Amino acid sequence: MNQIQAKYEKSEYSNEPHLTINVDGKSLDKILHELYPEKNLIGLVPTLLDWLEDSKERKLVWDRFESKQKQVVPILMCPDDVDLWCTVINVEIEKNEDSIKWLRIGLDSGGPNDMPNSIGTNVEWFDKIEPMEFKKSEYEKFGSDFKTEIDKDEIKRLISFWINRIDDKEQIPQSIKVFNFGIIETENDYQTYLIGAKNYDSENDDWACKEDFTPKERYLSLGINSKKWNWQEIQSIVKNGIEEFIETRILPLTFVHKAEYLTTGFDDGELLKIEQKVHNNGYTTMAADVQNDKTVHKSNFWSKLKSLWS
Prior knowledge:
This protein is α+β, with helices and mostly antiparallel strands and about 300 residues long. It contains seven helices and 14 strands. The chain is elongated, with a radius of gyration of 23 Å.
C-alpha cells in the first residue's frame, strides 16, 4: 500500500506553506518533476485547495473526487493561473470497498470547448508512474483535511470582507489607535466583534473594555461550520485570518494596517497580539509614505518598492 496525506509545505512558488498532496513522504509535484523534468511540473498546487475562482471548476473537482464511480480527476494545477485552463495534472481514480486506487496519472492535453466538463477528455498518461493504492481510511482523512482547510479559508474570507466594509463605510476618529477583535460563542456559531480604543495597556487587558469606537456592523458570524472547532482553534483561525489580510492587502491601507496595536481573544480569556508583518521588509512603511505623500503617484509605488527589496 502507498501512503497519502495532506501536508503543510511551502511549494516552489508559494510565499507561505499550504496543504500539499504528499505520497510516500514526498509532494506529488516533486515526484512528477523528478520523472519528467522537461515538463516543468515543479510547484503545481492541489486543485483541492480553495484557490479556484470559478465555482463551476471547484464543483467539478470535488464532485469527481468524491464520486464512487471511476473518474478522471484534475488533481494539480498551475499556481499562477489557478484554473483548469493552464497546466493540469489528472489522475484516474477507482474506489473499492477497502482501498482507493490511482490507476494512471497524466498531463491534460486539452479537449473540446465544453470547459470545465471536458477536462480529462484528452490526457497524456505518464508511463513512468506505477499505479498507486491507498487505505480507504487514510484516503478519507486526506480528503477531510482539504475540506477543513476550505472551511478555514471561508472564515478568513468573511473576515477580510468585513474589515474592508468597515474601512469603506466608517469614519474612524484619528484618536482611535488600537483595536480588539473579540470572539464569542453562541448556540449556533462563533462570532467576532470589533471595538476601538484610544489607549493600549500591555499589562492589563481591561483596555479592551473601553469602547471608544464601535462600528455599525460590529458583529460578524463565522458561520455554522465554525462550531466544528474548539475555542482555541477558532481563536487561532481568526488571528491568522487578520494577519493574512494585513500581509496581502496592498493599497489603500486600512485601519488595521494603521493601528498601533491589534489584539484578538475571548472576553474571558487572554488577548493575543496580532502580528502586523508583511512578506517584504519595509512594505508597510513604504506604503504608508506613498499614501501620505500626495506627490507620489501609485504608478511610482512599485518602482520605489522594488528599490527596497533589491
